[in-house]
Amino acid sequence: MTPGPSDDTAALFARLGGEDDRQVWRDLWDHLCHQGDVQSGSFPALPHLAAIADGRAPGEPHEAVELAGLIASATDEEHTALYAEELAVLLPVARRLLDSAASEHAVAFVDLLQCVLAFEGERVWSTGLLEGLYQQEYEIECPECASELFVAFGDHGTFVSAGDYVTSTPPKAPLLAADPAGLAPLPARLHRTAARAGHEDIARALTYLFGRATCPDCGDVFPVAEQVEANRI
Fold it and tell me: Sheet containing 148-154: which strands, arranged edge to edge?
């Protein structure tokens, strides 16, 4: 039997379905994942969120999926097994929301993409690492010389910088996009999903995330995604 949520959390869920739902969701986010931090007490909320997502309980399915997705991204093997039934309920709902997300803002689209990955059991790119796609940059470290680098692919241009490119004019080096046809299975799937949904900027950003960067300090060329993942640890 899975543990139940705290009395405070249960009381918040009981208030859903009324005129103050927006505030209730804000309180749930703050209570369960304050500043994006998933705690042990967050996991017992998954059954309630799954029930909201598939219409068995009052509340907004989209909100339930996004909150559950953040919690699921932090599950270990024990929690994944304990809440397998809930994750199986949440996954098809998240996929349906993602399929209809063509008109969504890029932030909402990427958040749903991470939710799908989290419910599928992926524990790297579901953990917030795709947020750089809409932020149009990643901060990484050169694996050769340990220089702190910015990888940019947005309004300021496409390049690798060895300093703060917004407030200064540091040395820059090439950022090389990956060929979509040569992407590994997961990046290829993410790229295909973004392109089909009409989020061309996100699809393009994925080719840079899974492309190669040149360090302007030492000239080393390395995979961007590997260093983004290394920064996570």
Answer: 137-141, 148-154, 157-161, 172-173
Residue 8 CA: distances (Å) to CA of 1, 17, 27: 20, 17, 10
Side-chain-side CA neighbours of 26 within 13 Å: the count stands at 4
What is the Cα–Cα distance from 61 to 74, expressed in whole angstroms? 20
**pLDDT surpassing 70 at residue 167:** no
Looking at this protein, which amino acid is placed at residue 135? Answer: Q
Mean pLDDT across the chain, nearest whole number?
93
Q: Is the pLDDT of residue 3 over 90?
A: no
Distance (Å, whole) CA 167 – CA 68 = 37
**Gap between the Cα atoms of 140 and 226, Å rounded:** 10
Per-residue pLDDT band for 233 (boundaries 50, 70, 90) equals low
Is the pTM for the entire model greater than 0.85?
yes
106, pLDDT greater than 90:
yes
The DSSP secondary structure of 43-95, one letter per residue, reads: GGGHHHHHHHHTTSSSS-HHHHHHHHHHHHTT--HHHHHHTHHHHHHHHHHHH
pLDDT band at 4 (very low <50, low <70, confident <90, very high): low
Distances in Å between the alpha carbon of 228 and those of 7, 210, 233?
A: 39, 10, 9
* Start-end of H helices in the chain: 7-15, 21-32, 46-53, 61-72, 77-82, 84-99, 106-120, 132-135, 185-196, 200-209, 224-232
Q: From its phi and psi, is residue 34 left (phi > 0), alpha (psi between -120 and 50) or beta?
A: beta
Query: Whole-angstrom Cα distance, residue 132 to residue 85?
Result: 31
Distance CA 101, CA 199 (A): 9
